[in-house]
Structure formats: C-alpha cells, structure tokens
C-alpha cells in the first residue's frame, strides 16, 4: 500500500462508541505483546472505549511470556469473568539482538526456530486455558520486518549483505503465520498485517511483489504512526466483533 491507501484504510476501520450502542461487552480484551504492542497502544484514538488492556514488554520472547503467565496471570484472571487474550509474540524469537553492536541477525537459517515457536505457542495456550478455562485465545499474525533496514539504521557499513537473510526471514514468517491460522482454527481471527505493506510493480513480462518498508519507522521493524494507527484499528475491529454481542 501507499501512504494514501493507509490513511483511507484507517478511516474505513475507524471504530466509535456508536458501534457498540446496542451491544454488551462479553469479554475483557487483553493484548500480550512485545514492543509492537507499545506502538499500537500509542496510536489509540476512538478505540479507548473498548477498554483494551495491554501487557507489553520490549524484546519479550515467548518463554518469557510463559514464565510471566505462570506467576502473574492468576491474579489478573481473578479480576475478570471472561477474557479474550490476543497473543502478539514471536518477532524476538526469530531474530536476536547483539547488545554490543545493536545489529540483529537470524536465530536460525532453517525453520527449526519456527517449529520451536509452534511448541511454545501451544504451551502458552494450554497454560492460559488451565489458569482461565473459559477464556478465548487468539494469536495475532506477525508482520514482516527487515533485518537489512534495522542494521542500516544502526550504522552497519554494508547492510546489503543481509538481503538474503531478509528473504529467509519472510519465509519463516510465512510458515509461522500459517501455523497461527491453524491454531486459531480460522484465517479470519487475526488481521492480515502483511497486506498493508505489500506492493506490486509492473515490469515487462509480469509483476514483482515486495514489502514497502517505507511505511515503517527507519528501523524497518516497527510501524510508523500512520501504519500503527491502521493496525490498532484493525485489531480493534476484531475485538469489537469478538468481545461484544
């Protein structure tokens, strides 16, 4: 998409109080996320009436979320009769940050880490279900991001060497998001974030498809303010239908 299309889509997905005038909240929405959650939380406008609770931690990996849930989730669940959990994790498991250089790299070149995440997502879902048996659990798909752009933003002298890693990362994300659709038992429960940055260009003999990371911040990982607003509204629209009747 272009910036103009992002703006138009944000208007389309805008939610207001009148959207729930004849509805009753059936479940408390809780988003558990890494830093992605912070960016969309800052983009909230009219969505604040949905009373979304954010539990976010920068750099959070799935095992950290599991450890947190074991200790802290029982008290949170006690406060609400019904809860719908939105799990938006996985980014920080596919790539790792070198805290000295500030560069990121793939954890694995093969799909072993995707298989690991499958097991951990199932483990997290089973844990939440054990703590809150009547809860709903929805995994949000992981948006594409760029190792090359992140490392360029951190001053790497030759960031183009990461272009192959970017392609490997996109392949891993495709596999992981396919599994997320399976564990959700639906392709409709999570927004398709990748569609918002997918772009095509025509050439002789066909078209090329690529991701427009110009819609991200310069780090190539986090959405800019326009895209964050759209993603917040996409999630809010899901919450409106999934938590209100």
From TrEMBL:
Q: What is the lineage of its organism?
A: Eukaryota, Metazoa, Spiralia, Lophotrochozoa, Mollusca
Q: Which InterPro entries match?
A: SGNH_hydro_sf (IPR036514)
Provenance organism: Mytilus galloprovincialis
The name on file for this protein is: SGNH hydrolase-type esterase domain-containing protein
